[in-house]
Write a structure and sequence with these properties.
Blueprint: H1 4-26, H2 47-52, H3 54-70, H4 74-81, H5 88-103, E1 112-115, E2 118-126, E3 130-134, H6 136-154, H7 162-181, H8 185-201, H9 206-211, H10 213-225, H11 228-238, H12 249-261, H13 286-319, H14 323-347, H15 365-385, H16 389-404
Antiparallel strand pairs: 1-2, 2-3
Helix pairs in contact: 1-3, 1-13, 1-15, 3-15, 5-6, 5-7, 6-7, 6-8, 6-14, 7-8, 8-14, 12-13, 13-14, 13-15, 14-15
């Protein structure tokens, strides 16, 4: 029977393959046939086109990122899973400052990229690829996850104290989420929810977190009411046909694509909504294209793969003996699961439209690479637990001896 890490790799590979195929299909354009470029029977979905294109390059980089973290040095895992409480404050402040600096890059003229009334991306020249777009909030999302897992363990018993342990962690989480919320409320809510879950699992008291819930709700409400386009998304969610050519256009076309697929779908590459009807068909609404072209079979396959990925991640988390590793696995599992759920709720009109991508499937080089790197870390944690128990015990004894200090001759402890 395969280990959980091996099952996780196969799930991620299958989802990434579906993503490459569907993004390539959704990105097809209508081009007039000429003598030099006649009509092709395959619709342009040839293996050479897929592998040699930008999408194929991003997929290869994502797999390399997964391999890099899956085979990360053992010493690196040991250092993360045994944090030093003496450096807790220093790491917390420095990491938060770095993340805030990364988020501020989207406001620098010349590299900032403004799309759909928000600045979420920066553009960097890349040889052979022209320019590549990077979403700093994606980097911060995974960095914050690791910081919360590490900090909750490094704080020790202080995490149960509101002012000495929990408040510094929440201050870092809140500052970053507020900065992200200005441009991307969906990602801010995702980071906030995952961070709060990690802190609760790490020993924070529930009533401490509940006491701050009204503050978080007030910040979300302020973000909604201060933005016209966000309020339009709420009203279009209630009744998209009030403005079918404006705010409700996304969801109407999405539901049309899902209904058009019926049981077996129109066939890979044969969808119609991608030809200028459904906006964001390669990113936020890629699941609608899957439904249209692959039908209920494709929908069931994608849902099964996500369910298997989440349950396998849960098994890996349950096997972790060290608190930091367990919290990190929980954060990765929750981030992928919540992100997939939010996207699926949006495209099926069960939630207001948000700019949340479908993990491993929606187009986005930054998202693919970082998500695969996170899954690779889960695979590494699974491999770490499969190593010799005697090695783990020796590492634990080493950290215990450091905490106790040098032993005096003749003194029995």
């Amino acid at each position: 029977m395969p280990r959980p890490g091996q099952t996780l790799f196969l799930c991620a590979l299958a989802l990434l393959t579906i993503g490459v195929l569907m993004v390539t299909s959704a990105g097809m354009e209508i081009v007039p046939a000429t003598a030099e470029a006649p009509i092709r029977g395959d619709g342009g979905l040839s293996p050479v086109t897929i592998i040699s294109g930008r999408i194929g390059v991003y997929a290869a980089l994502a797999l390399l990122a997964m391999a890099a973290t899956a085979f990360a040095p053992k010493r690196l895992i040991e250092r993360f899973t045994a944090p030093n409480p003496e450096h807790w404050w220093r790491v917390l402040v420095i990491a938060t400052a770095v993340m805030i600096g990364m988020l501020l890059l989207v406001y620098i003229p010349g590299i900032s990229r403004h799309i759909n009334a928000s600045s979420r991306w920066i553009e960097i020249p890349a040889p052979g690829l022209g320019t590549i777009s990077i979403q700093p909030s994606e980097l911060v999302k995974w960095a914050m996850l690791g910081l919360m897992a590490w900090g909750a363990v490094a704080a020790g018993d202080r995490i149960a104290s509101f002012w000495r342990g929990l408040m510094p962690m929440l201050a870092c989480l809140g500052l970053v989420c507020l900065l992200i919320m200005k441009e991307d409320m969906g990602t801010a809510l995702l980071i906030g929810a995952t961070g709060a879950l990690i802190l609760l699992a790490g020993g924070a008291r529930f009533w401490h977190m509940a006491a701050l819930a009204p503050v978080a709700a007030g910040a979300v409400a302020a973000g909604l009411f201060s933005s016209t386009y966000r309020m339009h998304r709420i009203t279009s969610f209630v009744n998209p046909y009030d403005d079918p050519a404006g705010a409700g256009f996304h969801i109407i076309q999405s539901m049309g694509a899902i209904a058009g697929g019926e049981g077996v779908g129109r066939g890979l590459g044969n969808g119609l909504q991608k030809f200028g009807y459904l906006p964001e068909d390669t990113t936020d609404f890629i699941f609608s294209i899957i439904s249209e072209e692959l039908g209920l079979f494709g929908v069931a396959l994608v849902l099964f793969l996500y369910a298997l990925l989440i349950t396998t991640s849960r098994d890996i988390m349950a096997r972790q003996q060290r608190p930091a590793a367990r919290l990190l696995a929980l954060g990765i599992m929750a981030t992928i699961g919540l992100q997939a759920c939010i996207n699926l709720l949006v495209v099926t009109k069960l939630a207001p439209t948000k700019g949340i991508a479908l993990p491993l499937i929606s187009s986005g080089g930054t998202g693919w690479i970082l998500t695969c790197a996170a899954i690779g870390m889960l695979i590494r944690l699974d491999r770490f637990e499969c190593e010799s128990p005697s090695e783990l015990e020796s590492v634990d004894e080493e950290h215990a001896s450091r905490a106790e200090g040098p032993r005096l001759p003749g003194v029995v402890t």
